[in-house]
Amino acid sequence: MARRICSLLLACALAIAPRVRADDPRPPAAAAATAKDAGLGKRRSLAPDASLAGSIEAKGRAAEPAGPRLDFDTFRFAIEGQVSGKRREEMADLEQLIRLGGSAQELPGWLFRLAELHWEEAQYLFFEANRRDDALGQAKGDPARVERLRAEKKDLEERSRGEQAQAIARYREIAKRFPNYPRLDEVVFFLGENLWKQNRRKDALEAYKVLIQRFPKSRYVPDAWMAFGEHYFDTADKGNRKETLKKALETYRRAAAYTESSVYGYALYKQAWVHYNLGDWTEALDLFKAVIFFGDLPTSTVAPDKKLALAREARKDYVRTYSHVGSPKAAPDDFARVGGKDARDMLKSLATLYYDEGKDRDAILVYHGLIVADPAALDAPGFQARIVTCAGRMGKKDLAVQQAGVFVEMLQAAEKRGGDEAARRSLEGARKDAENTLRTLAVQYHAEFKKTREDAVASLAAELYRLHLGLFPDARQAYEMRFFHAELLYALEKFQAAGDEYLRVADLDARRMEKPGEDGKPQKPGKFLLDALESAVQSYDVVAKRAEATEKRPQGAEARGRLPIPKEKQQLVDACQRYLALAPRGEKAVEVSYKAANVYYRYNAFPEAQKLFADIADHHPRHDLARYAANLALDAYNLQGDWRGMNAAAKRFWQNGELMRAQPALREDLSKVIEQSGFKLIEELERSGRPGEAADAYLAFARDWPASRLAPTALYDASVDLAKAGRLERALAVREQLVQRYPQDPLVPKVGLASAQDREAVGDFDRAAEGYERYYQGWRRAAGVAAAPARKHGKRGAHAPPPAPAGDAAGYAEDKARDALYNAGVLREGLAEYGRAEADRTQYVETWPASPDAARVFLSLADLAGRQGAVSKELRVLEEYQQRYVKDPTEWLAVQDRIARLFRKAGNAAGERRAHEQALAYWQPRRGQVGERGLAVVAEAQVLALEPAFEAYDRIDFAVPARLSPQRQVKWLKGQAELKSARLLELQKRYTAVVETKQAEPAVCALYKIGLAYKRFAHAFQTAPVPKELRQNKAFAEEYRAQLRQLAEAPEKKAVEALEYAMTKSRELGVSNACSRAATEILTHYKPDLYGPPLEQVPPLAAPRAPGRASGHGLLTALYLPPGPEAAAPVEPGPALPPLGARAEPAATPARDPDLQLDEPEEVRPGAVAPRDPSPPPPIKDEDLLP
Questions:
Q1: Which InterPro entries does its entry note (predicted)?
Q2: CA–CA dist 999, 1065 (Å, integer)
Q3: Residue 543 sits in which domain range?
């Protein structure tokens, strides 16, 4: 559909906000997609008139000749003539002699001679009369001369008849007066001869009869018999034909009986003709063959030239007879035997007879044989041309076209060979025949296609047209042939070739129109010019549209400049321009002009497009395309950003009264364009870098055009330019003015959002937040989004399904509404307006529950509760967050850690314990899915979960029951020690597993607990009561206590090592918690110089050496552990525990575990304890844990 200026120019170019400015041109592809295409309507399909075709019909069998072309007169007895002048002198002398009289012997001779001279004179006058016919032909246009010549001819004819009469009279006189004249047979013969020449055949035959009967041995008898044969032969059709011909045959046989006669050969020849007329083809062939052979015999009775003529005619007649009975395949061999060197001519004659009589199959066989025998012969192309004709007459379309192609090849080869004048004439004849045949067959096949609509027939016709035009481009009918060739190509959907051919037709007309005619004036074009021009455009239009499917148009910035027109489109444009040049007032001139302009327009060739579009609007205002053309002309200016040109063109169209009356809808379009292009001129001022002046111009525009659809845009642009000019308060005021004057304008949302952003930029956060909230509320109303129902956080149960996305509406953008509400929440939080911040974020989550930020925003509600000290609300939000949003086990545990800490902070030990139990239970089946971030609460839960086991371990003591015997006391005490050691090892293993989680605080607590477990082991020895039976003996009691203290030394040493390792790790990781403080307190007792405050130096006291083994109570003896040998080198102790995260690989020096390394601050925090320099003690070995 057409791009309408009133809608698209406004929407896409002139009324766009400055941040999406009209000076960002539309992509030409998008613009072209909406341009109306000009259809030329249904084209007129024409078929050639039958008169364009020639005729290839066979002549049909000609009427059978009644006799030979060779006349009997050629072979009659003849006398020599002489010049007319001498003849008249001689005639005068003889007349005088005869008058004077002579002897009986002389006078008949004189009369005979005078008769001969009269006959010769008659012949001479007859020939002279015939020559006047030639002169009459040359005298046309000269009436006087024509009259004189006609009179002369009449006189000559009368004189000739007079001379003939005198000759006959003399012969009669001799026969009457001198019956015994020795040459009387000769007189009688010539009397009959002259009577025959006067067409007095009856009298002539009487004379011949006398000759035959009275002078049977005369040498003129064969001629007399021949005369009777000719009479019967010539009059056969006037009576009983067969009987008369048999009489003729008999008389010819009698004449042929005289083998030495001059008429012998002719008598044989006429016998053959009688058989021919009787249909006795074989007998005729034999006799014609005999005549041919007679012509080759040496004889003196017939002149050589006459004998050759007779043989030549016999050969022709032999061929004629052969055509009735012979086989075309056997003809070459037969003619070679009969005709010898003339066999080829005989074959040509036979083929011609077949061709003329319509025996096309036989003709093709003979012609093909001639071509095969001599392909380079001069007449070979002519033979091939006739083969094409025969194939066409037989209805063999494929064969005709195929043989036509062969003819073209033969003709081209012959023309390359060249030759003499005879060759040229032969080729010219072949070309003439071929031209007629190709033209006729092409037209016939074309006409058949119009009836049957068979594409195969159309293809054959098109090929014939092509061959014809290739061979005869300048033929008289080439114009029509070329046009109808194009019509067939179009019907076959060969549109490219059809368009090319149509343009060639137009070129023929163009050349004709350029040449002056006989009157000196330009000649008129042919009758197909308009059809050819229009069809060329339509053909190329189809080609162009098909090419669009694979056309790759530039995108982005490359598509904005002038684009190269593809060759398919360019040829369409050229065809359109050809139409406009040759037929500027053609019926489809406007549509053609529009089509060319549209191509220019689509490829950003705007000057050319503007010229053609404007020409349609200016000069064809009443045409249906005038309004579209005007719109597109203006849009071309728009796409170039040429607002001045656009404004001027719109005003010119406005002033075209006829255009305005014919296209009333265009008036409103133009008024808006004039207004809007003026608006764009203001934008040019804006782009020149003068925002203050541009703002004033926009404000003036809004004041001058308050009802314009661009007035709100002008106010908005003015506010933007005022902001650029540093006049922010004025810009905000203008925006408020826009909202008040045009509250329903689509720019109002954008204005409100821009104001909020500007207020945020200048630090007016409260009003900025209000602006953001208003934008969101406006969007919600425009999009029809219902208010979110109030609900309490943390309430369990199914959630309502999220609402469907509302999308953009009434100038509000959903994504911007989402950002605005989010920003409002951030600003409210920054202003410590936590309630309003919470309301904004709750609205966000309820409006866009499926947005990527919904979970994060919902979690921020817990932060807001925390800032307000609302622990219960924070806990509820966190629990609901886990339920609604958390799918990842790591995230779930991280939130659970936060919940546990909140319970701890609130002093709710039961809640904290429950939170840790839930964390541990959640982690157990998902331990492979939990990442580092979720292990903190798991590790802490594991430490807390070990408390009952630790307490049970701690309850194991060494208070020996008094009721036992000494032996059982020893056993009981040893069992208690082994039990406590086993429990210690189990605790150490489980606490080590906590360390391996690499969570800093739980790991330090686990290390602390290991050290505390060893300390409690030592403490159990140290505080064990003395058995009752030993209390009575003070020495035994002291020894018992000493031995218990000695047993406590090893675990106490291990305790110190473990606690030191815990302290070292807490300092490395920056952990300060109850565990680290407790460890420090214990270590301060053991090593006050390292871990306690500075004390007064006290000289060390030497500890008393352990005495030798004392003898006494069996219990003490069983538990006494002697010290190791003093001289033994001290064993290098291992580390108290493996490094955090390590498994079973012992290390000489505990390395700092990078996996547990927390981000350390760049500066030491106030109150932080700097790590001590001494390295941590070596880890405790498992075997050393046994007392």
A1: TPR-like_helical_dom_sf (IPR011990), TPR_rpt (IPR019734)
A2: 11
A3: 493-515+525-548+563-587
